[in-house]
Each structure stands twice: as C-alpha cells, then as structure tokens.
Amino acid sequence: MTGLSRSTEHLDARRKRILYRAWHRGTREMDLLMGRYTESTIDTMDDTALDVLELLIEAPDRDIFAWMTGAEPVPENYDTPVYRALAAFHKHDAPLDL
After folding, report:
1. FRET partner for 36 with CA separation of 20 to 30 A, picked from 8, 17, 23, 76?
2. 8 A C-beta contact, residue 35 and residue 22
3. Spatial separation of the C-alpha atoms in residues 47 and 96, rounded to whole Å
C-alpha cells in the first residue's frame, strides 16, 4: 500500500520517480511524512526545488524524523526552503478533525 491518492499519469518521469521514492522510504512514518507532502507539492515544484527534494529524500529516515520532531537540530545543508515547507506542512497547532 503506497498511500498515494492521486493519478500520476500527467507527471513527467522525474516527478513520478520522486513521488515513488517519497512514498517508499522504508518506514511507514516517513512514507506518510514525505509522501503526503510530495504528493501535494510535486506539480508546482521547479527544477531547483526538485533537486533539493531529491537530496532530502536521500537522507536517512531516522535523521529526518529526528529533525521533524525537534529531537535533533536540522543540519545547515538540509535546512532549506523545501525542508522548512515539509516541516510546516505537518505542523498543527490543534488536534486534527479527522
């Protein structure tokens, strides 16, 4: 189960690959964090943002999860607008109404 809730037929090969990798991280928690964010933004990302996202996807799950939870500081080379957008995408100030 990927969690993917959209069609990818209109995406170019690079975006399809990035989206696949975002949903197939290795841990379900990171699949959800990276996959949901990537799925919602992949259409609007330019090549520079895609480059940064590809580098972020290469970081180990445990590291990204530690940065996202505040357990460890985000290294300077990963503290990019793309990472900050990912973190903001998952920040909630109140319980979610599911």
Report:
1. 76
2. yes
3. 32
User: SS3 for 8?
Assistant: coil
The C-alpha atoms of residue 13 and residue 19 are separated, in whole angstroms, by: 10
Dihedral of CA 24/54/44/83: which sign? Answer: positive
Cα–Cα distance for residue pair 75/62, rounded to 1 Å: 14
- What letter represents residue 71's amino acid? A
Domains and their CATH numbers in the chain:
13-89 (1.10.150.250)
Residue pair 34/64 in contact (Cβ under 8 Å)? The answer is yes
